[in-house]
Design brief:
With about 240 residues, the chain is mainly beta. The protein has 4 helices and 16 strands. β4 and β5 form a beta hairpin. The chain is globular, with a radius of gyration of 18 Å.
Length: about 240
Protein backbone atom coordinates (compact mmCIF):
# COMPACT_ATOMS: atom_id res chain seq x y z
CA UNK A 1 0.00 0.00 0.00
CA UNK A 2 1.18 3.54 -0.75
CA UNK A 3 0.53 6.75 1.18
CA UNK A 4 -3.11 7.69 0.74
CA UNK A 5 -4.80 4.84 2.54
CA UNK A 6 -4.14 2.42 5.30
CA UNK A 7 -5.65 -0.91 4.44
CA UNK A 8 -5.52 -4.14 6.38
CA UNK A 9 -3.07 -5.98 4.15
CA UNK A 10 -0.48 -8.67 4.31
CA UNK A 11 2.42 -7.06 6.08
CA UNK A 12 5.85 -7.68 4.61
CA UNK A 13 8.35 -6.83 7.29
CA UNK A 14 11.54 -6.30 5.34
CA UNK A 15 14.82 -5.47 6.98
CA UNK A 16 17.78 -4.56 4.81
CA UNK A 17 21.12 -5.84 5.95
CA UNK A 18 24.28 -4.15 4.78
CA UNK A 19 27.73 -3.89 6.26
CA UNK A 20 27.27 -0.13 6.56
CA UNK A 21 23.59 0.43 7.30
CA UNK A 22 20.41 -0.97 8.76
CA UNK A 23 16.97 0.17 7.66
CA UNK A 24 13.41 -1.00 8.23
CA UNK A 25 10.32 -0.90 6.11
CA UNK A 26 7.59 1.49 7.20
CA UNK A 27 4.81 -0.24 9.10
CA UNK A 28 1.35 1.30 8.99
CA UNK A 29 -0.48 1.24 12.28
CA UNK A 30 -3.63 -0.49 11.09
CA UNK A 31 -1.60 -3.09 9.21
CA UNK A 32 0.40 -3.83 12.33
CA UNK A 33 -2.79 -4.17 14.35
CA UNK A 34 -4.31 -6.51 11.81
CA UNK A 35 -1.36 -8.78 11.12
CA UNK A 36 0.78 -8.94 14.24
CA UNK A 37 -0.15 -10.95 17.30
CA UNK A 38 1.22 -8.73 20.09
CA UNK A 39 1.26 -4.92 20.38
CA UNK A 40 1.91 -3.06 23.60
CA UNK A 41 4.06 -0.71 25.66
CA UNK A 42 6.53 -2.92 27.49
CA UNK A 43 9.28 -2.33 30.06
CA UNK A 44 11.86 -5.12 29.98
CA UNK A 45 13.28 -6.34 33.27
CA UNK A 46 15.57 -9.24 32.34
CA UNK A 47 17.14 -10.50 29.12
CA UNK A 48 18.86 -13.87 28.90
CA UNK A 49 20.50 -15.31 25.81
CA UNK A 50 19.34 -18.83 24.97
CA UNK A 51 22.22 -21.24 24.48
CA UNK A 52 22.81 -22.41 20.91
CA UNK A 53 20.04 -20.14 19.67
CA UNK A 54 22.03 -17.88 17.34
CA UNK A 55 21.45 -14.59 19.20
CA UNK A 56 17.90 -15.21 20.53
CA UNK A 57 17.08 -13.82 23.99
CA UNK A 58 14.19 -14.63 26.30
CA UNK A 59 12.81 -11.91 28.55
CA UNK A 60 10.71 -10.92 31.52
CA UNK A 61 8.81 -7.66 31.34
CA UNK A 62 6.06 -5.43 32.69
CA UNK A 63 3.19 -4.43 30.37
CA UNK A 64 2.44 -0.72 30.71
CA UNK A 65 -0.31 -0.71 28.09
CA UNK A 66 -1.65 -3.60 25.99
CA UNK A 67 -3.30 -2.96 22.62
CA UNK A 68 -3.42 -6.49 21.27
CA UNK A 69 -2.40 -9.90 22.50
CA UNK A 70 -2.02 -11.90 25.69
CA UNK A 71 -0.55 -10.48 28.90
CA UNK A 72 1.13 -13.82 29.55
CA UNK A 73 3.01 -13.99 26.25
CA UNK A 74 6.63 -15.08 26.39
CA UNK A 75 8.48 -12.48 24.34
CA UNK A 76 11.75 -13.37 22.63
CA UNK A 77 14.19 -10.94 21.03
CA UNK A 78 16.11 -11.68 17.85
CA UNK A 79 19.13 -9.58 18.70
CA UNK A 80 20.71 -10.05 15.24
CA UNK A 81 24.00 -9.94 17.11
CA UNK A 82 26.94 -9.11 14.87
CA UNK A 83 24.85 -7.38 12.19
CA UNK A 84 24.18 -3.69 11.59
CA UNK A 85 20.65 -4.34 12.89
CA UNK A 86 21.83 -5.69 16.24
CA UNK A 87 19.39 -4.83 19.01
CA UNK A 88 18.72 -5.48 22.66
CA UNK A 89 16.20 -3.33 24.53
CA UNK A 90 17.54 -1.45 27.52
CA UNK A 91 16.31 -2.68 30.89
CA UNK A 92 13.87 -0.43 32.76
CA UNK A 93 13.06 1.48 29.55
CA UNK A 94 9.70 1.46 27.80
CA UNK A 95 9.22 0.32 24.18
CA UNK A 96 6.30 0.01 21.83
CA UNK A 97 6.61 -3.66 20.90
CA UNK A 98 5.23 -5.32 17.76
CA UNK A 99 5.44 -9.09 18.13
CA UNK A 100 4.79 -11.84 15.59
CA UNK A 101 4.25 -15.54 16.14
CA UNK A 102 6.73 -18.04 14.78
CA UNK A 103 5.73 -21.56 13.76
CA UNK A 104 6.70 -22.89 17.19
CA UNK A 105 4.36 -20.39 18.89
CA UNK A 106 7.06 -18.02 20.17
CA UNK A 107 6.35 -14.29 20.07
CA UNK A 108 9.38 -12.64 18.49
CA UNK A 109 10.57 -9.04 18.13
CA UNK A 110 13.65 -7.46 16.57
CA UNK A 111 15.17 -4.04 15.87
CA UNK A 112 12.44 -3.23 13.35
CA UNK A 113 9.64 -4.26 15.71
CA UNK A 114 10.43 -2.13 18.75
CA UNK A 115 10.31 1.63 19.13
CA UNK A 116 11.45 3.64 22.14
CA UNK A 117 9.57 6.89 21.44
CA UNK A 118 6.30 6.19 19.61
CA UNK A 119 4.29 9.13 18.33
CA UNK A 120 1.29 10.22 20.39
CA UNK A 121 -0.80 9.98 17.22
CA UNK A 122 0.23 6.34 16.78
CA UNK A 123 -0.74 5.46 20.34
CA UNK A 124 -4.05 7.27 19.97
CA UNK A 125 -4.98 5.15 16.94
CA UNK A 126 -3.91 1.93 18.66
CA UNK A 127 -6.05 2.82 21.67
CA UNK A 128 -9.06 3.43 19.43
CA UNK A 129 -8.59 0.09 17.65
CA UNK A 130 -8.14 -1.71 20.96
CA UNK A 131 -11.31 -0.10 22.32
CA UNK A 132 -13.29 -1.52 19.39
CA UNK A 133 -12.42 -5.04 20.66
CA UNK A 134 -12.18 -6.45 17.14
CA UNK A 135 -9.01 -8.52 17.52
CA UNK A 136 -10.93 -11.63 18.60
CA UNK A 137 -12.61 -11.63 15.18
CA UNK A 138 -9.41 -11.23 13.16
CA UNK A 139 -8.15 -14.67 12.23
CA UNK A 140 -4.36 -14.94 12.31
CA UNK A 141 -4.76 -17.63 9.63
CA UNK A 142 -6.15 -15.15 7.10
CA UNK A 143 -4.02 -12.65 5.21
CA UNK A 144 -5.64 -9.65 3.57
CA UNK A 145 -3.90 -8.31 0.48
CA UNK A 146 -4.60 -5.13 -1.46
CA UNK A 147 -3.97 -5.28 -5.21
CA UNK A 148 -3.54 -1.51 -5.25
CA UNK A 149 -4.36 1.49 -3.11
CA UNK A 150 -7.95 2.42 -2.34
CA UNK A 151 -9.23 5.47 -4.19
CA UNK A 152 -9.60 8.15 -1.49
CA UNK A 153 -11.74 10.32 -3.79
CA UNK A 154 -14.66 8.03 -3.00
CA UNK A 155 -14.65 9.22 0.62
CA UNK A 156 -15.80 12.49 2.13
CA UNK A 157 -12.79 14.78 2.45
CA UNK A 158 -14.22 16.38 5.60
CA UNK A 159 -14.29 13.06 7.49
CA UNK A 160 -11.04 11.99 9.14
CA UNK A 161 -9.92 9.19 11.41
CA UNK A 162 -10.59 5.46 11.51
CA UNK A 163 -13.06 3.78 9.17
CA UNK A 164 -14.02 0.28 10.28
CA UNK A 165 -15.77 -2.24 8.02
CA UNK A 166 -16.56 -5.82 9.00
CA UNK A 167 -16.14 -8.36 6.20
CA UNK A 168 -17.72 -11.80 5.77
CA UNK A 169 -16.05 -14.15 3.28
CA UNK A 170 -17.38 -17.12 1.35
CA UNK A 171 -15.76 -20.57 1.24
CA UNK A 172 -13.42 -19.38 -1.54
CA UNK A 173 -12.29 -16.45 0.64
CA UNK A 174 -13.99 -13.89 -1.57
CA UNK A 175 -15.77 -10.93 0.01
CA UNK A 176 -19.43 -11.84 0.45
CA UNK A 177 -20.65 -9.04 2.70
CA UNK A 178 -19.30 -5.70 3.98
CA UNK A 179 -20.83 -4.11 7.08
CA UNK A 180 -19.84 -0.58 8.22
CA UNK A 181 -19.06 -0.68 11.95
CA UNK A 182 -18.46 2.90 13.11
CA UNK A 183 -19.87 6.32 12.24
CA UNK A 184 -17.09 7.21 9.78
CA UNK A 185 -17.68 3.97 7.88
CA UNK A 186 -21.47 4.39 7.91
CA UNK A 187 -21.15 7.90 6.47
CA UNK A 188 -18.85 6.57 3.76
CA UNK A 189 -20.42 3.45 2.33
CA UNK A 190 -22.11 3.11 -1.02
CA UNK A 191 -22.01 0.90 -4.07
CA UNK A 192 -18.83 2.52 -5.41
CA UNK A 193 -16.96 1.97 -2.13
CA UNK A 194 -18.32 -1.58 -1.89
CA UNK A 195 -17.03 -2.35 -5.41
CA UNK A 196 -13.71 -0.64 -4.67
CA UNK A 197 -13.12 -2.99 -1.74
CA UNK A 198 -14.25 -6.08 -3.65
CA UNK A 199 -12.09 -5.24 -6.67
CA UNK A 200 -8.92 -4.34 -4.79
CA UNK A 201 -8.89 -6.50 -1.67
CA UNK A 202 -8.55 -10.26 -1.53
CA UNK A 203 -7.73 -12.90 1.08
CA UNK A 204 -5.61 -16.00 1.32
CA UNK A 205 -4.66 -18.51 4.01
CA UNK A 206 -1.42 -17.92 5.86
CA UNK A 207 -0.67 -21.60 5.19
CA UNK A 208 -2.37 -23.53 2.42
CA UNK A 209 -3.01 -26.70 4.46
CA UNK A 210 -4.97 -24.83 7.15
CA UNK A 211 -8.69 -25.60 7.23
CA UNK A 212 -10.74 -22.58 8.25
CA UNK A 213 -14.02 -22.95 10.10
CA UNK A 214 -17.01 -21.05 8.74
CA UNK A 215 -17.14 -18.73 11.77
CA UNK A 216 -13.52 -17.77 11.17
CA UNK A 217 -14.22 -16.38 7.70
CA UNK A 218 -14.51 -12.88 9.15
CA UNK A 219 -12.09 -9.99 8.91
CA UNK A 220 -12.02 -6.20 8.96
CA UNK A 221 -11.11 -3.52 6.48
CA UNK A 222 -9.59 -0.67 8.46
CA UNK A 223 -8.82 2.72 6.94
CA UNK A 224 -7.14 5.60 8.70
CA UNK A 225 -7.51 8.85 6.81
CA UNK A 226 -5.30 11.51 8.38
CA UNK A 227 -4.23 14.96 7.25
CA UNK A 228 -4.09 15.07 3.46
CA UNK A 229 -5.02 11.37 3.54
CA UNK A 230 -1.61 10.39 4.85
CA UNK A 231 -1.28 7.50 7.27
CA UNK A 232 0.33 7.46 10.66
CA UNK A 233 3.13 4.94 10.72
CA UNK A 234 4.67 3.21 13.71
CA UNK A 235 8.14 2.37 12.45
CA UNK A 236 10.30 4.44 10.13
CA UNK A 237 13.59 3.36 11.65
CA UNK A 238 16.97 3.68 10.02
CA UNK A 239 20.33 3.08 11.60
CA UNK A 240 23.58 4.23 9.98
Amino acid sequence: MKIGNSILTFLLLITSFYSFACSCSQIKIVNAYSNLEFIGIVEFQTLNEIENSESIYESTYIIKELYKGNRNEKIYINSMKGSSCSFLPEKNSEYLILGYKENDGKTMISFCLAQGNPKKESLSILRKLSKEKIEQNISSNLRQIAKEEINNNLFEKSVKGIFLYKVHLDSELKIKEIIPQNENAKKNFNEKIRNEFKNKIYYQKSEEEIKLKKEKLTSYIILNWGKNYENERIITTSRL
